[in-house]
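protien #1 (seq + structre)
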Amino acid sequence: MGDAAPRAAAVPVGGGAALAPLVVAQVAPRGGAAAPDHATPRKARYLLIDCAAVTTSTPRPTGRWGALLSAHLANSRRYLLSGVSYAIPFVACGGILIATAIAFVPMTPAGPDFSNAPFLKLVLDIGTVAFSLLVPVLAGYIAFGIADRPGLVAGFVGGAIANQVGAGFLGGIVAGLLAGFVVHWIKKVPVPRTLRPVMPILVIPVVSSLFVGALMFAVIGAPIKDAMTSLSAWLAVMSTGNRIVLAVVLGAMIAFDMGGPVNKVAFFFGAAMIKEGNVAVMGACAAAICIPPLGLGLATLLGRRLWSDEERDAGWAALAMGMIGITEGAIPFAAADPVRVIPTIMAGSAVGSVIAMLGGVGDHAPHGGPIVLPVVDNRLAYIAAIAAGCLVVALVINALRRFAAGRAGREA
């Protein structure tokens, strides 16, 4: 290279951001020194140097597949938001119908009693069906975000299997990402021209569904069953030890996957303890159950500017679902931003669970949320536990979003 001084230029990209500067360095013609900038020969060449690529210590993926994988990982949040945006109406519809049905029937020690309310039972059944579509829709449209329409079938199939094996919404996210990447790679395989018309409507859906379905059953389903058995045995051992540690573990498990397998292990453990006369364990679970949706719904009210219109609408649905003890109301928020949301709601539920345990809260019904107040012992402590956990969730998640927004503004 010649001695001419390099010139740096930022390359604009969509949204007003800019990539790292590209240095335009003048390269002298073969056999001679670089000419001054004002008298650059016609045949002088310029070398574009990506400063970010030169200075970073992390090697970039090499090859076509490595580049594709790197690009998709960078776009993972966009893929998750694609699934969440389509799943929110199912959460709102199913959650509000379920909440309405449960709110107007008597709460007994065995749970909500629909024996004398056939219409409300019908409302409950319709809401349950609508809500059961949440995970398949989430998975299907995550795959759609990656691979367009050919990814829908494998995504929906993978999401339905995640429901069937009890993998919950985390299993749905895995299924959606897996289906999307598999279909995207299948689309890159060169095929004869005669096969191209049937690829998106026959070959790709069949092949990708077989592959994703086999992995979901073999790799996800069996290990989840074994893990849940081990978790149940572990909780049984812990119940004979320190009750504060037990409350922390139960609260974190309840919030971790919001209705998924880990949540179910903690819930059914609490329900089993009722039959043994230990209602305090279910009391701790009952407080933890409603904190994720109520806390996130409260966050959208306290920090409205930090949330989009769609997220604020989901916040109202989450508040309604939290009031009748449906943890799944928090799923849209967790699916869109799992790294910040899941640890936050785990901390909030753990706080609420500990306060309930220390306050001597006992729940005689296998259910949670404010709706079980008629069958709860030490109701003031129960309300205080829920309020404290919700405040932890709301304040922490808003602080994290405010920090992330500030950092993004500084980087821009």
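ok now protien #2
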Amino acid sequence: MNEPTLKCCVAALAGKQAALNRRFAYYDGTALLPVITERLREVYHQFNVVGAENWSAVVVDSMTDRITLRGLHGPDDATTALLAAAWSSTDMVLETADAHEAALIGGEAYLIAWRDGDGPVECYYNDARSCHVFYDTARPNVPTLACKWWDDEEARYLKIYTAEAIATYRAVRRSFDTERADASRFLPVDAPEPNPFGVIPVFHLRPRRRPISELDSIISIQDAINILLANMLVTAEFNAAPMKYIISNAAGIEDLVSAPNRVWTIPSGDALGGTGNTTQVGQFGAADLGNYLSAVEQYINALSSITRTPKHYFQLGQNAPSGEALRVMDGPLVKKCRDRMDRFTPTYRALGAFLCQLQGVLVDPMTIRADWANPETEQPLQQAQETTARAQAMVAKRQTGMSRKQGLRELGYTDDQITTMDSEETADPHARNMQQVIDLVEAQLLSRETGMALAGIDDPTAEAQRIQAEQEASASLGGQVINAFNSGQ
């Protein structure tokens, strides 16, 4: 690697430390209280306060709870088995969960995969503060260079990756400053090693092409909430021990102490400067704590709107929604999560193809499928009703010429699952007969309801139920008449 490349890597890594540290501090709830006036600096001298209500974490966690990658699937069973083995051996469930969280907090995260010789396949999540990827300016989705640094007790190491070679450098720790890194301090550990795979093994997860955090738009709101809460705590302390005052020229009042169960003895009737005024005792009133809580609530509402996080995440104890209302309120958040999942998918396709390559199999990344969990709130009863409605719609479509297999595809079944069901039905005569009965009943019901619809009946199902009820009533009445006639009544 040449010297300009080394300088570029060190500058890129050092240059993003401050912004990323700030974002993670807000997520962790360790950001220091910002003081906006000099007067408050005097009031809060040696008063170290952090965010008492860390809503920044709620914004991120509400998304990470819904963004779950369950695995990777290949174009065939053999490739899928390779991916499953690599997924299991590298604990990718944990690595991807950490990567998603870091990508939402810092605006980017990294996964690095490798295999040394015949050793096991390895894949680890890496913090954005320790990695960086450079892209071709003409083709901004094509990586050209990647780098990573890490520390031990004595030195900081820097590894630079290209598709052709991998080089490692070392800088003595005592001479290294993270914020003002000097590339000249890094010396090569050994000669660059050729990259046997021809692929940069650093995979970049980014919700946006620019590294934008989910917290960037709400940090100022979190600061305002923290300031209000700090002021409320100071006011509450003042309410617990109100400041008292005495207007008097009597001797010894400077020794009076305000404390519970303390009784003051103050001379009375003393004149103040010959004016005839007597001793006055009082206390300063405190601000209403409700004013702070109202302001905090307003900021939380703004935070909810800006981040599209449903309000019930911030006010769980107040009229928690359920059923369809919950799904509607979660809609914007679900859409945002789906967007992030779609943006992560190309990276996971490339990672899946590389994991196969590490095991000696070349796979087209476009044939890799990422298996994401459904980000919507699970409502078992509603899901059952929706499944029934979709199945009924599929039955109606089949009457218009749709094949059974296409109908099952639209219901969410894969081709492999459809093939398995067909083979099971062929092997089981009872299942085949039952399917024929089901098809016949469906056709009869559909033909009756279709005829009613053509006749202009708005609700064919309700009309069919009404007709059936009338037929049952008529049959019952006919039976009564016959019985009465037979009995001679």
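The mean pLDDT is 80.
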